[in-house]
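Appendix B. Chain record.
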Amino acid sequence: MASAAVIAKRYAIPIILVVLAVIWQLVILPTSFPRSHYDVIGVKQNSTSEEIIEAYQGLALQWHSYKDTEIITENVIEIQHAFEVLSNQFRRRDYDLFNFDELQDVAKAAKKQYAGDKFSRLKLPLLKMSETDLIDDNSEVLTAENFKSMLGEEGTWLILVYSLGSGNSQQFAHSWKKIVDWLDGVANTGKVELGEVQLASYLAERNRATGHPFFRYGLPSIIAFPRTCRRLDCLVRYSGELNVDAIVDWTATDILGLPRILYYSLEPLVTEVIRKPGPHKVKVICFSKTGQRAAPFLRQAVRDYSAYASFGLVLWREENATLWWNMFGVDSAPAIVFLKDPGAEPVVHYGATNSSVFHNLMEQHKSHALPQLRSITSMDLGCDVKGYSRAGNDTLTWYCVIVAGKLGSKLSKAREIMRSVQDNLTNEVIPGTASISSLPDSLVAAYAFQQKRLTLAWLDGDAQKKYCFFYLHSENVFETCGPRRYAEEEDVPRVFLVRYRRNNSEVNIDVKQQYKNIWDTFREDEEGLASQLVAKYNGSMEGPEILSWMSNTIKDGDSSDLPYFVKKDEGGNVQSPSSSKDKRANVQSGHPSKDKRANVQSPYPSITDDVPQDAYQALESDSDSDSK
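Structure tokens predicted for this chain:
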């Protein structure tokens, strides 16, 4: 007996643990999880559709063999729920593969609604939906095959995961089509149906306990691959409300990082959009009737064109119609207004726009009618020694005429005059068979302009003082370049012409250098740079006189091969003898040199850091200012 008591005491705890484990496995654990739909119907998981229907019909006959009062409505809903899932091929697939059951919430709501009622009042089926595909849209249908190629493409991707057996997916179809349209040109869009099991499983999350794929936020599910993300560990899942505005804003803000465009009333519009960004930017004002958020392509334009333009939104109100007409010449919305040169009429575009239309508008109007010579424009304008003429890389000689001065009424007037000169050059009729040698002197500048060998531009003599001082150095240069030294100082805008010439051979350039240290011995000629000759206009600021001077100077520059050499003075400036060919022009020439090993200052001025810093746009801009 003693030995039996000792044995019982020794094994009591292990026996108790085994009994508790059996109870847990056979009693508690099964009741802790709902029965599967197959258990509710009373069929096996691999049963055919016919077997499922037959089992359901058998249960339905049992309902009708009893009175209403003897049937528990909650049980009927549970059976109906299981049958509607298993009898639909798409719902059954989603349930088996992804444990996705959209009817679960519907069944819970029905149990609450019909609690205590007779089962005959129950309206069946629980969920009514058509068996149609999603509405056609412009998003790409993704498969396991083309998804691999998608990962190799640049850009952001927004992917919709949906099911043909999902009522929510079908209801969301109209919203998805709008989202695709809103994101056109900004982000790539694609969609994956759960029938693409391999790809859908790849995009799904994994249950840590079972490893089973699932979608935490249900279907439809929105997944984003940011621009630099092509792996699962960096994709982003949308967890907000399934509405167009919320998803588009999430994509534009959180995924693409696009800045917002604010709505302004009159006073803040003038201060923040027109004055604050500075005169070097075109002002883009979008009038809206609805007050809705700016479309993503508008927000992308703020980022892409932040160096060229400032942006603002205005809510159109009829009581302010007269005000907007007097200010900008706009009489209805939607409309986009481009404010450009001083004194120039605003450019107004009416009607709704899309990404491609707005991009074309920005490319057309991103610069002033008389463009500003800046680091971001110099190459396109053909006003850079590192670049080429607008006429093409084969052009050996071309010209830039620049008006420079300090910001103010006199520079604005000078810009208007140069803009009128540009209009005259554009509108002048040149015979199709004409050559520059056969034209009268008055048409030489127009011919060069229409052949894209001549560009007109303006320069901010204060903010771009390095460039201004380089070309206009003289005793009275401070009237044009640099900050005002005293309040009464006179502002004098000046016009000058730069002739660029590319040489067929570097032998034509006689570079005289004196090496001061060992690093200078590594200096070599810069290959592929154009030489420069500068002619300064000393006449009155009258359009016809400027036109005549331009024509004579260009004709002289085309016909004369002025000898020159390059050297640097102690200040690092390029020096050359004045031209005897043109008594009206002060001429200097330059051909920059390159230092591959030492940080030697280039003899030609850089305008990279000479334009005022972009003022208020949300993103850091490619500012041309060295100030912060």
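Further analysis of this model is presented in Appendix C.
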